[in-house]
Each structure stands twice: as structure tokens, then as C-alpha cells.
Amino acid sequence: MATIILNKNNFFNNLDIISKSTKTRDKIALVLKDNAYGHGLLEVASMAKEYGISKAVVCSCKEAKLVDDFFEYILVLGEIPTSKSDKIRYTINDIKSIDKFPIGTKVELKVDTGMHRNGISMSELEEAFIKTKEAGLLLEAVFTHHSSADELTSEWFWQKENFKKVKEKSRMLAHELGLGALRFHSSNSASLFRLTNFDEDMTRVGIAAYGCLELPKALQVDGLKPVLSLWATRLSSRAVKAGERVGYGGDYVAHRDCVISNYNFGYGDGFLRACANGYVTPEGVELLGRISMDNSTFATSKEKLLVFNDARVVAKYAKTIGYEVLTALKEKIKREIV
Ligand SMILES: *Cc1c(COP(=O)(O)O)cnc(C)c1O
Hints:
By secondary structure, the chain is of the alpha/beta class. It has helices at 8-22, 33-37, 41-51, 61-66, 125-134, 155-176, 189-194, 311-318, 322-327; strands spanning 3-6, 28-31, 55-58, 73-76, 88-92, 106-112, 120-121, 138-143, 183-185, 203-205, 228-240, 245-246, 252-253, 258-263, 287-288, 296-298, 304-308, 334-337.
């Protein structure tokens, strides 16, 4: 199997850059969903704690429990809990779900300001506040998510405007209903870096911390470095003659006599099969033919092969995004922090 190497210096470098925007580490909530974007949930949680990050965002209750010891605050985005917890906050994604939360649960209300994926609609705000109170839930925060912060359209501005209205109305409702002060948050990685004066209570950053943020030139952020690299070990080598075919379906035809080697990872480990025939490693080694379940063939005989150190490059070959390349990497792959 392949090995994933996590570069702690690069991770801390990225968190330094993010802290410059938030002005304090306290306002960084690191997004750890999907095995910390494939990096390894516990590995990233431990590095984040060492750096001084106290907040985390996850998708499921299971993820929240696994990282409970590392953080002071955890926000679960995508599940309704069966029991309440002191440290863990849960997201209300739908007005109809409010009565499904256990009494006394700390909740954060997600408001749809234009993405139309999760969250209550803006017109349901008052009803949601009242229902939350009636259900005996502790409403701590109101938040939203941007659909297009990484694109040069007006959408990001519209959602910001909408959220401003949501904030004003929420403060008013909290006052009327005698709730405590609410927290507000809206920024993912791309949105955080578009703001010149970040003034919210928290930012939910994922991809920037992992160093694979991709933005149009005009929005470019300098200095972020990819944290994850994937290394493979050679299983076997062989000489092939010009004209011989390699791998399933014989998709690759050797155009000259050469030595090729087989490495111990494939799509079964989460390396996207769409990279077949044409992907070139950072050291210029060509991937030959189709990727098998546990095997891939490269035009080299190196013992240790660097497969990639920037998911965005792989994503280009696979016609996808860095997020998918990273989260595809299976949990079973060994992770090492250097
Ligand atoms: C995944 C996610 C984020 C993090 O987004 P990045 O682009 O990786 O920074 C933030 N907020 C929500 C609600 C998310 O689902």
C-alpha cells in the first residue's frame, strides 16, 4: 500500500496565513469532515491542537466523538444527535427538523442565503427562532455558507448582503426572545481571503489549511503549501520491448524498449482511475496504462515513488477538483507526520 506523508511545517505555515486574516487563532474552526479531507482525522486533529486551534467542524456525530479530546468546540454540520453534549454543537438544516433534537442541545441555525442546499430560508427566521426556543434548544449561533466564494461572480456579494440582513434580524429576535448573545459565521476558505476586514466570530476553513485552495488569478492567495503527499513502494520491475502493451486492456503501448515498474496502490486505495495514461508525477515519471485496484505502473524503477504532492495537479488530469482527489484517499493508507 502507499504511504501518505503529512508535512507539519506546511500545515502550520497555512495556519499562520489564515491567522493573519482572522487576527487570532481562536476564531479558526478547522474543517475536519471526510477524514480531514483525506489527510487523516486524528493526525490532523493532533497537529491542530499542537498549533493552538481549539475549534473544529465535522460532518457526523461519529467524527465529533473521535476528535472530542482535541478541541474545546466542535460543530457537527450534518447529523441530528441522539443525546446532547456540552462541547458539541449541532446544525439545524431544516425547519422541520427542530423538534427532533433532544431538549437542551446546543444548536446553530444554518440559513440559506443563496446556495439552496441546506439551511432554513430567510423568511423562516422568526419561526425557526420561536420553534427552537419552544423545543428547549440552546441557540448559540446563526451561520450561512457561500456557493461561489471562489468564483468571480456577484453571487458572493449577494450572499454577504443577505447574511447582513439575517444578522440584524437575528439580533433583534434574540433580544425579543431573551436569548443570550449569538455568534455569527459565514466564511469558508475562499470567502475568508476575499474579506479585507474579517469581523465575524469564527471562520470555517478547510481547503486553505490543507494548502490546496484554488482561486481565479484575481483572488489569488500567496504562500499556502500543500500538506499531503502520496508515496508508493515498488513491487516489481520488468523490461518491455517496443510495441508491447501494459496493463488491463493494453491501453499503453511501449514506443521503445524500456524498464517499467509496478507500484503498490491503485483505485482501491483511492487513487482516481481517471488519471490513467498520461498523468506525470512531480518528478516527471509517467503513469502507464490503466490503474488497477491495487497496482499502478510507472516508467521508472525507483524504489520509493512520489505519486503526487499537490492534489490540484492530479485533479487537472482527472478533470475534477483537489477536494475529490484528497477525500478519495482511503482510511487504510498509512499516514506519517514529518
Ligand atoms: C466544507 C465546508 C466548509 C469548508 O470549505 P473550504 O472551502 O474547504 O474552506 C465550510 N463550511 C461548510 C458548511 C462546509 O460544508
